[in-house]
Target: Pyruvate, phosphate dikinase
Amino acid sequence: SQTVYPFGGNAKSDDPRAKDKTIVGGKGANLAEMAEIGLPVPPGFTITTEECLDYLEHGADPSTELRAGFAEKLRHDVTSALGHIEATVGKRLGDKDDPLLVSVRSGAAISMPGMMDTVLNLGLNDETVEGLAQVSGDERFAWDSYRRFIQMYSDVVLGIDHGLFEEALEIAKEDKDLYADTEMSAEEWKELVAEYKQIAADERGGEPFPQDVTEQLWGAIRAVFDSWDSERAKIYRRLNDIPHDMGTAVNVQAMVFGNMGDTSATGVAFTRDPATGEKSYYGEFLINAQGEDVVAGIRTPQYLTKAAREAAGADKPSMEEAMPEAYAELARVFDLLEQHYRDMQDIEFTVERGHLWMLQTRTGKRTAKAALKLAVDMADEGLIDEKTAILRVDPMALDQLLHPTLDPDAPRDVLTTGLPASPGAAAGKIVLDADTAEQWAGRGESVILVRVETSPEDIHGMHAATGILTARGGMTSHAAVVARGMGRPCVSGASAVVIDRAKRLLKIGSRDLKEGDLITLDGAKGQVMAGEVATIEPELAGDFGTLMEWADKHRRMRVRTNAETPNDCRMARQFGAEGIGLCRTEHMFFDAGRISAVREMILADDENGRRAALDKLLPEQRKDFHEIFEVMKGLSCTIRLLDPPLHEFLPHGDAEFEDLAATTGHSVEHLKRRAGELHEFNPMLGHRGCRLGITYPEIYEMQARAIFEAACDVKAASGEAPLPEVMIPLVVTRRELEILRALVERVAGDVFGEKGTVVDYLVGTMIELPRAALMAGEIAEEARFFSFGTNDLTQTTLGVSRDDASRFLGPYVDRGIFARDPFVSLDIDGVGQLVTMAAERGRATRGDIKLGICGEHGGDPASIRFCEETGLDYVSASPYRVPIARLAAAQASL
Ligand code: ADP
Ligand code: MG
Ligand code: MG
Model:
């Protein structure tokens, strides 16, 4: 197979490898493609990635003679491909009268900063520079090109510090009182070139700067090959999951010159605005400049369009104004490129004496907002179809769009910066504990909960708050995880925050604040600001709404939400949730005003004591469900009966025991003894889930009653009932479920009798322990549905506690032991097998068993793809993840 592929001129190839990015790299493939569709591309050739790998394996010995490392065939092929360029341009490399100059450019299949920098103007030496001056009739241009070449080649190929050259240039300009490079005359460049050559020779121990143009060419090719194995390239690949065995291609291309005076220029552009997605040409250019001068910040670049220049109030003319003909040609090229690639392109171009040349195109990077607009606009324009539009948007990128954001133009008085634990912006009054947060929020105030760190007892306060700020804790602290789940902006680990709870004061750095003072959080940046910074609400209609509509049309799986408050349910429905996949009832037990009844129940000596306490809780639970069902009527609602370890509800500290003693009439000693009896060594694997339901059936009876009474009441009031799916947690045997299903059915029968009405409901279980997955066939005899609780299933399958994993999970992921954090993205190879097996066994027993997932993974696109492949009926995600799940589910179906 070919080692080298020519492009441009009359080069044409039917060989698919000529446009295969893995063979000729992204840059090479697109140069060949642009040339083929008739765009002006300077001729050149591309050496394949295979040759790079071959060289690195066999020839990469710096001690060998320069060309010794290259295969004979490659040497031959490069020489004949160079002939292609020479014939097309009508100049020869090294010709002292009319020299060909080339650029040598690296180009891997995946664009990689950290690879070799491009060498421009290769082919110049002390003789050819004179020839170039002659034929161009522009001495200044020739010597400018030569000094650029010496600096680039010295830096990139010879490894000489480019700072030495920059310093010499600075001094030269200072001596002559010049400001811009463009003010340097031919003579002045000539002097500088002499200095540059001296620097190069000094740095090479007296060996002069290479004058042999063939040696220059192979030196540059070799430097590109070697750069694949450079430290910075390796690090970049590691960080971005790019395999190390791909190699880079090398592009050798005839030079075109943007530095030939005022009718020449160089520029970069996007075919549409990459920040907003607006359909307007976007970019910058510089007159009389070369290569990356535009991005190097040496001079201020000029705008492409007149409109952009006017909008920015800039003086210097736009390209549209300064070079109308080249601009018109560029605009034509933009449209051709979009028609051809059917996506927004990021391009590099040069104008040589009024003539436009294309030097690169690739798919343009874009913000989430732009991605959405581009996908919808291009589908509307007929450039792409709906399915392609759906596939164009990264579901995770939607996250940025769903939260209110701070007005970028509003001033910020930044108090401190912590960790960006959960995105979004929130402004509100400082509150220092969860109960206060709930009270103030109850009277309609926006509050920011500020804590040293949060614990499960703060959940109600976190719910009530619009944002959360903690002084301690990392990105996976309780506050961070819960806040992300709830979609609350959160800044964690802001160590400058010092709280004095007794005095209701806090200090942030040197600033004194008090409870009730206004602050604003920027969860995406981790900033804490004084006062209220104006926010912008997310736009759920418009392009977002359109794309979501298309996604809904193309997805098979349903999308539900994990929610336990009416507010979250409403929000989730706005985001398109089609039911509840997980309502965790224990969160309701932590609410202020209820916790004492819960404690009373737990510490009761006998069933009667428990029932007395449960009687107080029943109306509260019924109210909870009533509110949720109102929002969710007509939809399936999976409600998990009480699950957490009991110790989470026990009183802490003397004050709480004394309070409880006062309400129950028991002595503090008695209560403390009871609490001691309930102590567990490993509560996560202890008395929780259905084990509670088996031993204290009255708890589940109360919950079932609350559910069915609320469902009947909602039906009576509105004519429409929800479809409760009562979920029994932590089941490992068929028998557990048999007992508890009977209990739920008995309560349902009682309630329906009392209310004189019935509602449809299902009883099923969570599959969250390996034994349950193994026994799924049997368990399905009692279960109408399975919901995969993949959080616990991951913990118990891997034997890894989520709360304690942070110390080793990072290193495990860095070293490739786990591909990704298994609590974020489902361990498909391991845990996935259990899910697949349980789904199959469940279906074998009960053909119409409903299957869903309710772990965090329900909002992760890779895990959602797995769920689609496994044929689950739905995924469930926290409210803010619902749109992500809708889009990911659609992508998985396509
Ligand atoms: P990168 O991959 O870092 O973008 P490139 O290989 O695209 O590097 O080269 C950088 C710049 O050098 C290009 O944007 C272009 O301005 C200039 N350049 C490269 N090849 C040529 C050429 N043949 N003629 C003129 N300029 C060139
Ligand atoms: Mg670059
Ligand atoms: Mg480039």
Summary: The chain has a mean pLDDT of 92.
